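Lecture notes, unit on protein representations.

Consider one protein chain, 115 amino acids long.
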Amino acid sequence: QVQLVESGGGLVQAGGSLRLSCSASESIASMDAMGWYRQGPGKRRDMVARITSSGSTNYADSVKGRFTISRDNAKNTVYLQMDSLKPEDTVVYYCNVVISGVYYWGQGTRVTVSS
């Protein structure tokens, strides 16, 4: 089964930027949609951004214009560029892929935005 490893989280001031990376243990070229989700304490895990194999993207309303998802099939990696970060973006971010109806998740990477 595919393994996903996120990296790039950390502490940043409001208005700053971070780039998250999600490295897959196998080729992502044939994987359709890959995405980033986030989850705060006691809350459900919500979609932040998704990208298909053709490069089509969609975003949660709360991050439109600030976050950009991309994929590099040659590196088996999906990225999330986060700009103009806000304190309310402070949560754990998870990489996701669905293969044959099975959801695969990474271990998560924490993002903290200070005001």
